[in-house]
Amino acid sequence: xxxxxxxxxxxxxxxxxxxxxxxxxxxxxxxxxxxxxxxxxxxxxxxxxxxxxxxxxxxxxxxxxxxxxxxxxxxxxxxxxxxxxxxxxxxxxxxxxxxxxxxxxxxxxxxxxxxxxxxxxxxxxxxxxxxxxxxxxxxxxxxxxxxxxxxxxxxxxxxxxxxxxxxxxxxxxxxxxxxxxxxxxxxxxxxxxxxxxxxxxxxxxxxxxxxxxxxxxxxxxxxxxxxxxxxxxxxxxxxxxxxxxxxxxxxxxxxxxxxxxxxxxxxxxxxxxxxxxxxxxxxxxxxxxxxxxxxxxxxxx
Amino acid sequence: xxxxxxxxxxxxxxxxxxxxxxxxxxxxxxxxxxxxxxxxxxxxxxxxxxxxxxxxxxxxxxxxxxxxxxxxxxxxxxxxxxxxxxxxxxxxxxxxxxxxxxxxxxxxxxxxxxxxxxxxxxxxxxxxxxxxxxxxxxxxxxxxxxxxxxxxxxxxxxxxxxxxxxxxxxxxxxxxxxxx
Lengths: 301, 180
What we know:
Structural class of chain A: alpha/beta
Order of helices and strands of chain B: EHEEHEEEEEHHH
Largest interface: A-B, 65 and 58 residues
Radius of gyration of chain A: 18 Å
Shape of chain B: elongated
Largest sheet of chain B: 4 strands, antiparallel
Oligomer: heterodimer
CATH topology of chain A: UDP-N-acetylmuramoyl-L-alanine:D-glutamate ligase
Strand content of chain B: 15-25%
Distance between the termini of chain B: 72 Å
CATH class of chain A: Alpha Beta
Strand content of chain A: 15-25%
CATH class of the largest domain in chain B: Alpha Beta
Number of strands of chain A: 11
Mean pLDDT of chain A: 93
């Protein structure tokens, strides 16, 4: 099972757990339609796109409404702490929620008690709380952008708003130095996919791949393009790819979807997500060896 | 024979501290925060952070923005909110402007706001990871800069604070400033 957890911007949305699929440009969980927008919506939509194309089991989602007050976030934490062992996911991807170091610590302890440890993926504020609580090494994959990479490299910061001024820079050429510092401080997951003008794939401190083509600068402005990468990585790992391969393919697929969409800063994330099936049809076999024979999603390997 | 047991301190580690000038105000603040469902506790501030009284409130630093607004609404007087351990004592105040031709993208910390130069309409917000960010995205996108709600008024987290700063810089650009 691929289990994805995150909040949605609806204060009235209760905790819901179930299979997630897409319908008419929306996500559907337990019959309830949720927006495919920046945040967990974009992340889940990308994961669903991979699952549908590769004919994997649909992702399972744990969601709750939260507009920043933390109640929905805490409901998700508590649910996962109590149920992750029984659910026994192969991949557990954590996304938007109110960062809470204590609850993150309890969740990591619950994961440690699982008979089979899931691949742990974190992005957005779940990555913030993991790093702030000193638990980054318990995670397999983080997907920071350039600013968040500076946050990981700052030994004291508990949120990117409080990183040291000298570390703040959106210049991606500084990423290798920040990566080195973050690993030295035990503030990085085993694998990092650092998103930016150049995407860096880093495994245990070593940069193993860089992706800079196609170059679609407008993607940075479009809310949700980092979220889709996290959804893609999670789903490709669930499909059986090694983490570093999954990261590189996710970065390429996201860029290519931006190019297919002719992305401008005014495009919406749904415009990018709509392109994933076409990108997979044209490139996934070439990039990954996961090939299809005529019928969409039919593997021949 | 009864055993003496040391009372265990809760393990709450909130990463932020509200500092007060007097004990009364600190206790009032605790009531206000607990009444609004914030996870907080009264603590003695570390000597280096003492600004007034010997009572402070430990809070989740990420919630700074919402807590500051609540204090304003409830007339709670506090000296300042500080990170318990951080390289910086204040949130980042650096902004960067990227020119995309028809659009400007303004970056403040981990948040970005992009608007159309001709119409002043916000076309996107991106970055961040706190739960109010998708909500603010929905509230801001497609609004004119001057008519958009300020994240200061409806956001709760440090991501919202960064979005507020980016939006302020957008307004400066829109009003003809150079954005520097």
